[in-house]
Amino acid sequence: MELKSLFVLDPNGTGVIPNATAALYHAGTNMLAAGLQDAAGEAMANPFEADADGLIMVAAPDGDYDLEVTGLGRVRRMRVRFRSDPIGKGVPILTEAGIARTASLGDAGHYIRFTNADAKSFTFDSAQIYSPGDEYHVRNVGAADLTLTTAGTFVLNPPADGTLVVPPGGTVTVKIVGAAEADVFGAVVPA
Predict the structure, then answer these.
(1) Looking at residue 13, what is its pLDDT?
(2) For residue 72, how many other CB atoms are within 10 A of its CB?
(3) Alpha-carbon distance 164 to 54, whole Å?
(4) What is the DSSP code string of 111-126?
(5) Is the pTM of this model over 0.70?
(6) Cis preceding linkage at 158, omega within 30
(7) Are 11 and 74 in contact (CB under 8 A)?
(8) What is the DSSP letter of 52?
(9) With contact defined as beta carbons under 8 Å apart, do 56 and 6 qualify?
(10) In what order do the strands lie in the sheet with 120-125?
C-alpha cells in the first residue's frame, strides 16, 4: 500500500481548489476502489475530499486506478499507480518510442527510456496532478535531443549553467518540489 499526497489545482494551474471531491476507481472501470486509508492509516470513505489547502492524502492497495477529481465545476480523471517498493524489486522501466509524452502521476518512480531517433519532448503540465517528492528518471537513447517542456504554469528549474535539453545518451531526474514545479538534475546540454 502506498500513501500519495496530491494537490488539486485550478483550471489555470495558478492555485489550489480547496475541498474538491475525489474518487478512486479501479483502472478503466466505474467501480470504486475499496481498502483506502488516510495518512494515519485509518480506513477512509471513497469518494473523499481534499482539505482546505487543496491537498489529497490517500493510501490504496498496490495497483492501477483512475482518480477523478471534481471542483469548480470541472471534472478531471487520470490514471494513477499505487505501489509498494519492496527492497530488491528495482525501478520499473518504461520505453517511450514516440516523439512526445506528457508526464503523468503514474510515470513517477519509473525509469523512462526515450528511444525514437527523431527530436523528442517530455512535457510537465500544470493541468496534471503531481505529487511533491516524486521523481521521474529519464534516459535519451535516441539519436536526437530530448527536450523537457512545460505546459500551463508548470515550472522546470534546469541545472546550474544547463538547459532543459537532454542529449543522446543523457540521463536526468526530474524531482517534483511543488504542485507545479520541479528541479532537473543530470546530463543536459550546457546553456
Answers:
(1) 66
(2) 10
(3) 29
(4) EEEE--SS-EEEEEET
(5) no
(6) no
(7) yes
(8) T
(9) yes
(10) 100-102, 120-125, 146-151, 165-166
